[in-house]
Amino acid sequence: MSPSGCGLNRTDGAEAAVARAHGRSCRVAKRTPPRLFPECLHFGVPDHALLQVTDRGLYCEAGDFFIDPWRPVERAVITHAHSDHARRGHSQMLCAPDGVEVLRSRMLPGAAIDPLPYGEPVDHRGVQISLAPAGHILGSAQVRVEFRGEVWVVSGDYKLSPDPTCRPFEPVRCHTFITECTFGLPIYHWAPQAQIADELNAWWRRNREAGRHTVVFAYALGKSQRLLAAVDPTIGPIVCHGAVERVNDEYRSGGISLPPTQRVTDFGPGELARGGALVIAPPSAVGTPWLRRFQPCETAFASGWMLVRGSRRRRGVDRGLVLSDHADWPGLLAAIKATGCQRVLATHGHTSVLVRYLRERGWEADSLHTEFVGERDDLEVDTPELPVGTAVAEEPA
Ligand SMILES: [Zn+2]
Ligand SMILES: [Zn+2]
User: Fold this and answer.
1) Which of 322, 331, 332 is nearest to 193 (CA)?
2) CB-based neighbours (< 5 A) of ligand 1, an ion
């Protein structure tokens, strides 16, 4: 593999350009080495581990690059475009080819993003980097890092359940597996997607017959498209919020087949008064004038958290659709076993329960403190934090 094949090598000039663009106060311009978190030691990551948690994110010292860093850095491998993994302000980014456009739309104009095809390793300063599908959203990847025979895999967010809108999760053999753990409790066990789709279609049909709209709140990136791919479009019109429709367009141009959807502006005056539409909107649309035109309606929130008593009531919706783009408990265990790893580092979620469970069964296991948030039931995780054009140097810490 030629060194020029790895976009992360294109650092000459990039750093200077970023410094010019952002001024002297910008963190990107500083060349100070990342500060290792002392907590790493307590969380079982040895001092010279291949990947370490630093103040800027997961860092590979041997290759001098980060994975999903939470502060602007020079070289970042991005697992997927959700905002807790894909922050703005990095000089060079590498991601899966089918994730490039979704990622680009969330970055500052002119962001340098290079595609790395799945399963094709690049050599960066003696460290082999490659990607494998994570099954989470379009373009989501696990990152495999190999150095002197030692292999680590960073899962990013992943699920094992089938999803027609993205490539299925592929296990990768490794010594150390850094796994997300959003739903890392034995109570989390997802029903088959077909069952959720049947439930949604039947409910929409009933609402349509009664002259009501059916409003489903779902994250704009990933969850909404998975829902769209699962519903029966012969029941009635499907209306998407602008934030969802923008992502739909990106998915469609990425070759993902979705049923026809409409924007509110496609309807004439009074046309929506008849009811019967399926409306997909991000949680942030709750209480907005945009939503008020869909009356009368019944509402649902699509999230893994809907399995928990109280979540539905807190959201103030009529029903919960238990649909998650993260692995459930059996999924986490199956993924871990399939890697053949000796050590598991668990991040975001109920890590202590999973860690204890794994230790009792012979794995080396620890929690890893990161700033990833998993699937939230209170906030939107996939909305860009800053309006396009905002100076990165002003990004709140
Ligand atoms: Zn995610
Ligand atoms: Zn996450």
Assistant:
1) 322
2) 82, 157
